[in-house]
Write a structure and sequence with these properties.
This protein has helices at about 5-25, 30-55, 60-75, 75-85, 90-120, 130-155, 165-190, 205-235, 240-250, 255-265, 270-295, 305-325, 330-350, and strands spanning about 125, 330. It is mainly α. Strands 1-2 form a two-stranded antiparallel sheet. Helix 2 (about 30-55) runs antiparallel to helix 3 (about 60-75). The radius of gyration is 19 Å and the shape is globular. The N and C termini lie far apart (about 50 Å).
């Protein structure tokens, strides 16, 4: 047992991409090139986190594996948003969070359903109902907060003048709800049926890989955000498109690769677990944590979003519940989720 040849090659490629990102950052390379190379390095580091977490998590069973992969797989998004806030890029920070949430809930989940349905005998992907329904509940709670804040601000209600205070209270409440959900979920195994397998890589090696990938992701995120503003100006794209599409897709390499591979293998429960855990963690854990962390910076993050994202998030939450709440999904439903994401991406391109 050990690393396969392709996996060793991937680790070498990630090391090369990370080194190239460092050279591009400090050697005065063109900003667009530095931005692209840093984005590729981030995606590679996300894969590295995914692989190492899978090896560690296989000792704990599929439900815990999906949770760990989603948690540590969100490290790039965490660092990107923190550095964006540090540099005063509030639009990029907000759209990165919402973009990561929607990219997982629409694009990644949609593609996973397409692959899973095609791999099945009757073109239906079937999975446990519990996690999709739990995800829908937590996502709707987050959406409720965002909608209420938007209405208060838009209607010039007195509460609209206290968005930061409301966001702090809501963030703490969301974290409490998330904690009340995640502990029983992990203890129960999450309703995932597959048996745990024996890892191919020793836990010490996996732990070192996680540590290295975490440090590399933190450094690369700084380089990525530093090159982001000049790259946006040179490419003529909007901040919203950069955050909602480019940053979100680069940071969601874990869910893209792991979910699709698992769905192809008909490992449906674990495939859905990886994606859905990421959705709920971004909505009910990462977003509120970053709101509290932002209090350390001059630029503060809140639940106040542009109306187009408020509407998009609300409808997406209902759509995801409709597609996955019954424990099965057809191929066309996966394409429907992907289509909604593409439409939303097109809207942000012209903002």
């Amino acid at each position: 047992m050990g690393l396969a040849r392709a996996e060793r090659g991937a680790l070498v490629a990630i090391a090369v991409a990370t080194a190239a990102a460092a050279v591009a950052r400090y050697a005065g390379a063109p900003e667009v090139l530095a931005f692209v190379v840093a984005g590729l390095a981030l995606a590679g580091q996300a894969w590295m986190v995914s692989f190492a977490t899978e090896q560690v998590g296989e000792r704990l069973g599929p439900a815990a594996t999906g949770f760990l992969q989603s948690t540590l797989g969100n490290l790039p998004e965490l660092f990107v948003v923190i550095f964006a806030l540090q540099k005063g890029e509030i639009v990029v920070a907000q759209t990165s969070i919402i973009g990561s949430l929607l990219a997982n809930a629409l694009l990644v989940l949609g593609l996973v359903i397409v692959v899973g349905a095609r791999a099945s005998d009757d073109r239906y992907m079937r999975f446990s109902k519990r996690l999709p329904n739990d995800t829908a509940t937590l996502l709707l709670v987050t959406t409720f907060i965002i909608v209420i804040v938007a209405v208060a601000v838009g209607s010039h209600d007195a509460a609209g003048r206290h968005v930061q205070g409301i966001s702090i209270v809501a963030a703490i409440a969301l974290l409490a709800v998330y904690g009340a959900w995640v502990v029983p979920y992990l203890r129960s195994g999450g309703g995932v049926r597959e048996e745990a397998t024996t890892p191919r890589v020793p836990v010490v090696v996996s732990g070192v890989m996680l540590a290295v990938a975490g440090v590399a992701a933190a450094l690369t995120s700084d380089w990525f955000i530093t090159a982001l503003r000049p790259a946006i100006d040179q490419l003529g794209i909007s901040e919203a498109f950069a955050g909602l599409v480019i940053v979100a897709i680069a940071g969601n390499a874990v869910e893209n690769t792991v979910g699709l591979v698992l769905a192809r293998k008909r490992n449906n429960d674990l495939a859905v677990s990886v994606v859905k855990n990421s959705v709920v963690q971004i909505a009910a854990f990462l977003f509120p944590v970053l709101i509290l962390v932002s209090l350390l910076f001059a630029t503060h993050l809140t639940f106040a979003l542009a109306p187009v994202y408020v509407v998009a998030l609300g409808i997406s939450a209902l759509l995801v519940w409709q597609v996955t709440g019954d424990g099965e999904a057809a191929e066309f439903e996966g394409w429907a989720l992907v289509a909604v994401y593409v439409i939303l991406a097109a809207i942000t391109l012209y903002e």
